[in-house]
Hints:
With about 140 residues, this protein is mainly α. Helices cover about 50% and strands about 5% of the residues. It is built from 7 helices and 4 strands. It has a two-stranded antiparallel ribbon. A two-stranded parallel sheet has the order 3-4. α6 (about 90-110) packs antiparallel against α7 (about 115-135). The chain is flat and about 45 Å long.
Amino acid sequence: xxxxxxxxxxxxxxxxxxxxxxxxxxxxxxxxxxxxxxxxxxxxxxxxxxxxxxxxxxxxxxxxxxxxxxxxxxxxxxxxxxxxxxxxxxxxxxxxxxxxxxxxxxxxxxxxxxxxxxxxxxxxxxxxxxxxxxxxxx
Length: 138
């Protein structure tokens, strides 16, 4: 592991994360909301164990813990501010795999120019986002 490189003037790298979700149905019950918040807080506090599997804990206090500081991924943890995450939108994983990643693949494999791959990727992403807006509308 090494620090994130700075290419083109800005240090940035795509990243991903595991997320906990409280559904709108669950949010209607105050007891369920309280229980969910307790569970999420508890899991976050236990991030040292998660870090042992190679993850970088989201909780600052856990990243500062000596047990985590000794792990290999701490070389990246100091750069956590340059990680870029996809927005939290329903179905965005499809957009990533069917538009973003495919566009990069097309350009890297020289099946399309970077500009054309980007145009195609944007068109596919826009179409998928529009479909997802309809599919996941409340």
